[in-house]
Amino acid sequence: MARAGLTAERVTVAGAELADEVGLDQVTMSQVARRLGVKDASLYAHVRNLADLRGRIALLAADEKTVRIAEATAGRAGRDALISYANAWREYAHEHPGRYMATQTPIDIDPALAADAPGPRRAVELTYGMLRGYGLAEPDLTDAVRLLRSTFHGFVALEAAGGFAHARTPQQSWSRALDALHALLEHWPPSPEGDS
Q: Within its chain, how far is the Cα of 186 from the centroid?
């Protein structure tokens, strides 16, 4: 019988909090159970296993990050939208490192849960919408999305690992990187003939 008050959502939030503290790859069902003050077996009435829990953490994080980006970019376009989008991404990664990694790690997510999760779909809509403001269309949209994700994730991952040990601050480099991305998006090179 499931413990009163314990839900899949509570288990997921506890797992997400733990991931932020110790790293996503260090989360175990036993640690989550201890955090909630229950026996390990109690969790299995709400999540199938550790893989299911990680999938739920990924969906929770995708929704949180997307809401933050949507709020930051509302009513903005062009450079302002890009900078607000990027800063919201980076702030989320700093504040919730374990959850953030769940959004960047290939995780096998239950298709039924994924189908009901608004975060990933809304993230795509927000990103493509922002980039359409630069006049991009396919296949350039997909290429630009991959460039932004690579730049943002690469930067925050290196920053988190202490990879910017230089007198120039990471914030200064981040600001210049965003200026460079804006300039590139405004002057996006045409696709080669026959590219599809």
A: 25
Q: What is the pTM assigned to this prediction?
A: 0.91
**Rg of the chain, C-alpha, whole Å:** 19
User: What is the predicted pLDDT for the residue at 111?
Assistant: 85
Contacts of 94-98 spanning 24+ positions with Cβ under 8 A: 94/156, 94/160, 96/16, 96/20, 96/61, 96/64, 97/19, 97/20, 97/23, 97/160, 98/16, 98/18, 98/19, 98/20, 98/21, 98/22, 98/23, 98/24, 98/27, 98/57
Residues recorded for the chain: 196
Alpha helices by DSSP H, listed for 105-139, are: 111-116, 118-132
What pLDDT score was predicted for residue 174?
A: 98
Residue indicated by tokens 């991931």 = 19
- d(Cα 185, Cα 18) in Å, to the nearest integer? 38
Mean pLDDT, consecutive 10-residue stretches, the chain (196 aa), reads 75 98 96 96 95 95 96 96 98 97 88 84 92 94 96 96 91 97 96 66
Identify residue 87 by its one-letter amino acid code: N
Rounded to the nearest 5°, which phi and psi values hold at 168? -75, 130
